[in-house]
Design a protein that fits this description.
Blueprint (H helix, E strand, L loop, with lengths): L1 H5 L7 H10 L14 E7 L4 E6 L3 E5 L5 E5 L7 E7 L4 E6 L3 E7 L4 E8 L7 E6 L5 E6 L4 E5 L4 E2 L6 H4 L14 E6 L6 E6 L3 E6 L4 E7 L4 E6 L5 E6 L4 E5 L24 E8 L5 E7 L3 H4 L3 E7 L2 E7 L3 E7 L17 H8 L6 E6 L3 E5 L21 E7 L4 H14 L26 E6 L3 E6 L6 E7 L4 E2 L19 E3 L14 E6 L6 E5 L3 E8 L3 E4 L1 E6 L16 E2 L3 E4 L2 E11 L6 E5 L4 E5 L3 E6 L4 E7 L13 H32 L9 H4 L10 H7 L1
Keywords: Exocytosis, Repeat, WD repeat
Organism: Diatraea saccharalis
GO molecular function, one term: myosin II binding
């Protein structure tokens, strides 16, 4: 029957569709927020540009605030698995999960796809990539264990492949059977002709491309995850699937043994794999080791971490979403421009400027956010993001765009936001500083307000290309209850092991769904803020430049007071805290209105020249005097005979709809059985009762599907 009902929908005519296209045509200009389903990360240390790929085939390049370029692969169903810059050329290569390679070029204001190559063949699934320092070739490691070379000018495969059987001639007998896929390929930081090739089963070889021979072999009894050269080029570090890493020496000829015993930072019990490791030098000249994963399986298998170790200093940065990739950057020049716009002359000079430089900042890409850590800061604090902020750190439930915001209001909001994050962020300059931006003042001051599931309202500056977070106002502290978290967790980082430190803002969980913001209104002239919530509460807040302690006025309005038989079956209202409350600089609540029944606020408007606020729910509306905190009037819009409690949750509505359909079918079958009995007992024509069809066929239109539900 549902198929029959859906089939009756009216399709718009061709003329109407043409008219809609003419009246409502739009063009994408800029993309705000964090990329959906991010899957790959890359960094160009010469141009100081970063690239992010997504599981939907999108490719985005970022530089200094205002420099953003977008590209899209032809097939949106292919995920970008790896991205690699050709340093200093403005070109980059993307690898997709369908084993296709794509060459992109950064033009003045766009990202253009130049060439595509589909790498096909048995056992030719690409498992690792490495761009030569010369920028002429791309090295392709495959799951079959072979290493191929792709000419970046013609984008075709060269004939000088490094086959697995040739590499295995000088290897131990145990690995001549099948060393596995090529897991990692790295050029020597001082001699580009020497390649470090790591295989999945734990074998690592140093291959000399000039003589086409294996000069060194390194054997580990654990599965290999990643490789990284040290600064001096005489040592390298390997990470493994048992949560350990090993440092090897290349200087001596007989170097099959590791320089040190394997290190399992969070052992001795079984640990997760260290998926990537970097060995860098800090600004103080000390060795700094950065790796992802390695947590104990039994206790912290659900943690997503990136650990940084420097001498006695040890921090495991804890993320709330899966870590995709990370890289380190060098110190930002005083003017913020790239250190060198043109490529060096020799591959060795290129390597010196692109590999194993001093680590000044750590950039980590997680599935739901980007986090930058200042490694020059004594406390390793995060860096404030000028863009790529996770708008959905808590689920977005509503939004409002405000134009022509008064300068005094905007300045007060910015000042409150800076005070709010004082001592939270490092003051270092933004490390991704490539590109140039034409300096021009925005023509209008625009703010975007987003309401969230956790009861917060966030203010964003959307006047330019970059969407910058300005301020966050939270309504949760106004209410009390067991479900509402106090957020007063004491951090005993020194006593805890592993030494976790929570970073990032993404938090997909809400303490109480009643806190969700359903409507938000900002007055651009006075700065007054009105927030409507999911529990029928309305918070009215004013903008203050100093902290304050005061008691919040409260009032209650019963919208269904004239409906004696009405029964509310939904959630309870929130409990307002009693007594005086202390508010920091910024928005401070002056009054809270509770509508009864406590259904979600569906509409909200405010007129601050008159000092009145009007709010609507599924049951009616109320007009309020916001200055004196008094109700002026209310109007119930329910049917006088409807006492079912409108405004129930969508889940209960769906259950009722299914139940009503079942009852309708039962009545239909009952009517048919009665018809057969009537036919047997009477020779006259059967008369079927209208009640048998009243619940099912009273309405067939798609637009009135919920009307069918209410009548069933």
């Amino acid at each position: 029957m549902l198929k029959f009902i859906r089939g009756k929908g009216q399709q718009p005519s061709a003329e109407r569709q043409k008219l809609q296209n003419e009246l409502f045509a739009f063009r994408k200009t800029v993309q705000h927020g964090f990329p959906h389903r991010s899957s790959a990360l890359a960094w160009d240390p010469l141009l100081r540009l970063a690239a992010i790929g997504t599981a939907t085939g999108a490719l985005k390049v970022y530089g200094r605030p205002g420099v953003e370029l977008y590209g899209q692969h032809t097939n949106p169903d292919t995920a970008v698995t790896q991205i690699h810059f050709i340093p200093g050329t403005g070109r980059l290569i993307s690898l997709c999960d369908d084993n296709s390679l794509h060459l992109w070029e950064i033009n003045e204001k766009s990202l253009v796809e130049l060439k595509t190559h589909m790498f096909e063949g048995k056992n030719k699934k690409i498992s690792s990539l490495c761009v030569e320092a010369s920028g002429k070739n791309l090295l392709l490691g495959t799951e079959g264990g072979n290493l191929y070379s792709l000419d970046l000018n013609t984008f075709t495969v060269n004939e000088d492949a490094i086959y697995q059987d040739i590499v295995m001639q000088n290897c131990p007998e145990d690995f001549k059977v099948n060393p596995g896929a090529v897991e990692s390929v790295c050029e020597h930081p001082k001699v580009p002709s020497r390649l470090l090739i790591g295989y999945n089963r734990g074998l690592v070889v140093l291959w000399d491309r000039t003589t086409s021979t294996t000069t060194h072999t390194f054997v580990s009894n654990q599965q290999l995850e990643s490789l990284c050269w040290n600064d001096d080029g005489e040592h390298f570090t390997s990470s493994h699937n048992d949560g350990s890493y090993v440092t090897w020496e290349v200087a001596a000829a007989a170097s099959e043994r590791p320089l040190k015993e394997p290190v399992t930072p969070y052992g001795p019990y079984p640990c997760k794999a260290i998926s990537k490791i970097l060995n860098r030098t800090s600004i103080d000249g000390e060795e700094i080791i950065i790796y992802a994963g390695g947590m104990p399986r039994a206790s912290y298998a659900d943690k997503y971490t990136v650990t940084v170790q420097q001498g006695e200093k040890h921090v495991a940065f804890d993320f709330t979403s899966r870590v995709i990739d990370f890289f380190t950057t060098t110190p930002v020049p005083p003017d913020g421009v790239p250190l060198q716009e043109e490529r060096p002359d020799t591959p060795a000079q290129i390597l010196l400027q692109t590999v194993n430089q001093v680590a000044a900042a750590l950039v980590v890409l997680a599935e739901e956010e980007l986090v930058v850590i200042d490694l020059c800061d004594a406390k390793w604090r995060p860096v404030r993001l000028p863009y790529l902020v996770s708008v959905h750190a808590s689920a977005v439930t509503t939004a409002q765009l405000v134009d022509n915001v008064a300068a005094t209001v905007l300045d007060s909001i910015i000042a409150a936001g800076q005070k709010q994050t004082e001592n939270v962020y490092s003051e270092c300059p933004w490390p991704i500083s490539g590109g140039q931006v034409e300096s021009s003042e925005p023509s209008a001051r625009q703010l975007l307000l987003t309401g969230h599931e956790d009861g917060s309202v966030r203010f964003w500056d959307v006047s330019g290309v970059a969407m910058t977070a300005l301020y966050k106002y939270t309504t949760a502290p106004l209410f009390s209850g067991e479900e509402i978290c106090e957020n007063n967790d004491s951090q005993n980082e020194e006593e805890e092991w592993p030494p976790f430190r929570r970073v990032g803002s993404f938090d997909p969980y809400s303490d109480d769904p009643r806190l969700a913001v359903k409507r938000v209104v900002l007055c651009p002239l006075s700065g007054m803020l009105t927030v409507g919530g999911a529990a029928g509460h309305i918070v009215i807040a004013s903008l203050k430049n100093t902290p304050n302690t005061s008691e919040v006025k409260s009032m209650s309005v019963n919208i269904v007071s004239d409906r004696d038989g009405f029964v509310w079956k939904g959630h309870d209202q929130l409990t307002l805290r009693s007594g005086a409350l202390t508010f920091p600089q910024g928005y401070q609540a002056t009054s809270v209105v509770q509508l009864s029944p406590p259904a979600a606020v569906t509409s909200l408007c405010a007129q601050w020249e008159w000092g009145v606020v009007c709010a609507g729910t599924a049951h009616g509306l109320a007009l309020l005097d916001a200055v004196r905190a008094l109700p002026l009037l209310h109007k119930c819009t329910l049917n006088p005979h409807d006492h079912s409690g409108a405004g129930d949750t969508p889940i209960s509505r769906r259950k009722s709809f299914k139940k009503s359909l079942r009852e309708s079918f039962r009545r239909l079958r009952k009517g048919r059985s009665q018809r057969r009995q009537t036919t047997t007992s009477s020779p006259t024509s059967p008369q079927v009762s209208k009640d048998a069809f009243a619940g099912c066929f009273e309405c067939f239109s798609d637009n009135n599907l919920m009307s069918l539900h209410s009548r069933c």
